[in-house]
C-alpha cells in the first residue's frame, strides 16, 4: 500500500525574483518615509500648532483626499507609462517636497495651512506611487508566490508603521523639525534609487492592456463579487480605523497624558504584531482556509481595540493599549495578505491597473471622512467615549464578510472556481 504524496514543485521564494526584490526594497524604504510623514503632520497639529480636534481631522483627512480624486487617473496611466519611471519620479517629488517644507519651517515657522498644503501634495504623489506599485506586484510573481510575496510586503509595511510613528515622535524633539524633514526627504530619495534596477516582464501576450478603459475596469470590479466584497469590507474598516486613530491621538495626548514619543511608541508597537503576523501568514498561508482567515481576522482586530479602549486608564494606558494594537496588527496583517493576494490573482493582467486603482478608491475614499469623524466625536462626546464607540462599531462592521461567498475559498489557487 502506498501513501499519497504532494507532487507539486516547491514554490520558489519571491526573494529570488530580481524584479520583486527591487519593488520590495524600494517600497519598504518609501513606506518608512511615508509613515513618518503621515504620523508627523497631525502630531504637529496637536502639539505645535495647537489646533482644535476638527483641525487635526482636517490635516489627517488632507493626506487621504487625493485618493478620491486621483485614483482612477493613476489607474488609467499605470499600464501606459514606465512603472520604473513612475515610481522613481513619485519618490523624488516627495523627497523634494519635504525638503522644501523643512526649509520653509526653518525660516518662517510652522502654520496650520502649511501642514494642510504639505499633506495634500504628498498625498497626491502617494496615490500614483501606490497604484503603480500594486499594479506591478502581481506581474512579477506567480499565483503560488503571491501569498509569500504579500507576506513579505505586509511585514515591511507593518515594520514601517511600527518604526515611522516612533521615529517621528522622538526625532521631532531630539533632532528638530527641519532636520527630521530633511532625513525623511533623504529616505524618499533612497527609495527612488532602489527602484532604478527594476525590470518588469513585457505585456506582449496581452496587446490590449494599454487600451482598457476606466469604465471596463470598474465594471469588472462590480460584476466580480469577491473583489466587490473585499472593496466594501476594506472601506468600512478604513473608515473606522482612521476615525479611531484620529480620536485616539487626541485622547492619548489630552486625557491619558501620553507624550508624543509615548504615543508614537504605543501605536508603533502595534505594528510589531503585524510584522509577526505577516511573516507567519506568508509562510503557512498556503495551508490555511483563505475564507475563514479573511472572515475571522478583522473581527478579532476590532475586538482587540474595543477591549483596549474599554479598560485603558491614565495609569495603565500604555501597556494595555500597546497589547491591543499588537493583536489588532496581527489580525489586520492576516486579512491584508489574503486580500491583496486575491486582488492580484482574480483580475486578468489587462485589468490590473484599473482594478487596483478602483479598489483603492473605494477602500480608501472613506478615510478622510473617518479622520474628520474621529475629531468631531472627541469634541462632541469626549475622548474615552469616542474611541470605545468607534471600536465597537468597527467590530460589528467586520462581520460583513461572514455573508460573502469568499468564505467558501479554501485555497488561493482555486479561488476562481470556488467563486
Can you characterise this structure?
By secondary structure, the chain is mainly alpha-helical. The protein has one domain (17-194, 213-418): MFS general substrate transporter like domains (Growth Hormone, Chain: A, Up-down Bundle). The protein is 77% helix and 0% strand. It has 15 helices and no strands. The protein has helices at 18-47, 53-78, 83-108, 112-136, 143-174, 177-195, 214-223, 225-254, 260-284, 290-311, 317-345, 352-364, 366-381, 383-397, 415-418. Helix 2 runs antiparallel to helix 13 (366-381). The radius of gyration is 21 Å and the shape is globular. The two termini are 36 Å apart. Mean pLDDT is 79; it is low at 1-7 and 204-210.
Q: TL;DR?
A:
The protein is mainly α. It has helices at 18-47, 53-78, 83-108, 112-136, 143-174, 177-195, 214-223, 225-254, 260-284, 290-311, 317-345, 352-364, 366-381, 383-397, 415-418.
